[in-house]
Prior knowledge:
The structure holds 2 protein chains of 2 kinds.
Chain A: E1 4-17, E2 20-33, E3 37-41, H1 48-56, E4 64-73, E5 76-77, H2 83-89, E6 94-97, H3 101-104, H4 111-121, H5 128-138, H6 144-147, H7 157-169, E7 175-179, H8 187-204, E8 207-212, H9 215-221, E9 224-229, E10 232-238, H10 239-244, H11 249-256, E11 306-309, E12 312-314, H12 319-322
Parallel strand pairs in A: 3-8, 3-9, 6-7, 7-8
Antiparallel strand pairs in A: 1-2, 1-4, 4-5, 9-10, 10-12, 11-12
Helix pairs in contact in A: 4-5, 5-7, 7-8
Chain B: E1 6-19, E2 24-39, E3 44-48, H1 55-62, E4 70-75, E5 78-79, H2 85-92, E6 95-98, H3 102-105, H4 112-122, H5 128-141, H6 158-170, E7 176-180, H7 188-205, E8 208-213, H8 216-222, E9 225-230, E10 233-239, H9 240-245, H10 250-257, H11 264-271, E11 312-313, E12 324-325
Parallel strand pairs in B: 3-8, 3-9, 6-7, 7-8
Antiparallel strand pairs in B: 1-2, 1-4, 4-5, 9-10, 10-12, 11-12
Amino acid sequence: MNDAALRVEGLATDFITESGRVRVVDGVSFVVAAGTTLGIVGESGCGKSVTALSIMGLLPKPAGVVVAGRVLLGKDDLLALPAASLRAIRGRRIAMIFQEPMTALNPVQRIGKQLIEVLQIHGEPGNHVARAVELLTEVGIPAPRSRLDDYPHQLSGGMRQRVLIAIALACRPDVLIADEPTTALDVTIQAQILELIEALQRQRGMAVIFITHDLGVIAEIADNVVVMYAGRVVEQGRVDALFARPLHPYTRGLLASIPRPELVPKSPLATIGGMVPALDELPRGCRFRNRCGAATSQCEADPLLADAQTDHRVACWHWRTLAP
Amino acid sequence: MSAPLLEIKDLTKHFPVRTGIFLRATGTVHAVDGVSFRVHQGETLGLVGESGCGKSTVGKTLLRLLPATAGSIFFEGNDITHLHGAALRRLRRDMQIICQDPFESLNARHNVGRILEEPFVIHGLGSAAERRRWVAELLDRVGLRSDAAQRYPHEFSGGQRQRIGIARAIALRPKLIVCDEAVSALDVSIQSQIVNLLLELQREMSLALLFIAHDLAVVRHVSDRVAVMYLGQIVEEASAQEIYSQPRHPYTRSLLSAIPLPDPIEATARRAQRIVLQGDVPSPIEPPSGCRFHTRCPHARTDCSVRVPTLQPVSGVATTSGASVACHHWQSL
Lengths: 324, 333
């Protein structure tokens, strides 16, 4: 793919816990092109947020350590850069928004100050107050000039998320990582925020990595999808192909367990048996095999993420016989 | 139709807003304002709406966990609005709640056996040996291993804790369970397991469920009827099928059109028709005059800010379920 805004290669991240070292992200690779959205989907503990924090160099220290891989933003490998250079890039060329904007914003500082601070730190030219008003207007905040003097608690959840987006986009980054930015919001507010992110992306040609557990949101906003399970990528591809013909038993199980209007009301939903294994008790080989109906002894060996079709990859020994 | 198991009439719950050092009441949160509905035995009523619409307050007030400001609550035909003492305690056997985060509602210092035994102890049921047997049966029924009784809540995953919460709720064989966002915090694959468990238990025990949730896809699947709330009032009620296929209130329509569909092709098609509401939900301290939705309604006319619409049965069109809607103009939309 040309125009790769961000390229992640073989990313592996460990967490050092009381009970030992666990691999939370294991060999994750993907590419995001400028102007496109990559959705990363998976359930709690699959490593999707840790992947984002590893890319941003924001892992909790000293517990989280990146042990392998490269994160290429243009020509720069973010993992190899000295801390000072990374700080200069973070917020300017790559930025991130989070699920709960209240914890990402400083509760005792006015919105305007927090916005202007970003512009100052990165040495943006021009009148910073005027630019802050412009940014708040861009993210659809009414009466932006008077909002500069508000504290975060004076805004609703949706408005706080808009402020966070304004801060993230202040320096026109090439890549925006959005980690469950709409999960805490109501559906009507979620619809507003998704529209806003898409509109800003169109205007700026930004690459977006959108992390969520909601397959509905992925179907709506993503061009390409990465499905993660227990720290690994199990399937990736173009959004339409992946939803039309999911190949990995886990992806198929996830999609089947969503209640859909076509189902008989109150009929039993499809389920995936058991639960996600703890990271220190992962099975050898395919990590999904103890919950998979199609597992055989072959699954005790690691399945490689291999091309099934153009732009559609799956890590399963048996996908050929499983997918119709 | 037979007499309803639960009926609430004009239920109203206001909370005082207290400010200043003397905590004087300076305003009123109109959390629930004149809500009425019925739930029959074995039936699920879904109650949906966005944060702050008052749906959880309705659940807690009808369970008598919060005192009602006005209105009445009838259970099996008896007015329970002001019940107290031993009579209220007896009633609690028949009405239970399952919360969003069972971890917060389970005593972290008690093992699961003791947590599940407690309802029997409080109501003076069974000998110690019988209670142990009942706990084992409950664990088995909700799909937990019997050794769970010796373990503590923190040793369980979210889905397992919700199973413990369900076991506790069904211990005394209640007639009604309020499920307050009971599956909202769970991952998709676990959510479907818990939904299936609730559906099975409902069939086995002829349970009535009030299913409070903001996830409209789950609500449609589990409910017989659905009521939609906005700012403390019900704006529309109909059978689950009808409310999703023929939503009448403009708020219901925008709410449904905002659900992201797990299908990229349909999602693109529907995006074109999506009604994205502008602005936020107004404050329930000073709800808008007239129709409370008029400040965000794409179809609002001048009379909507003046006249208060009441929930009226839908007439003049085919309706299968005695649908009702609170909108002056739904017929012309």
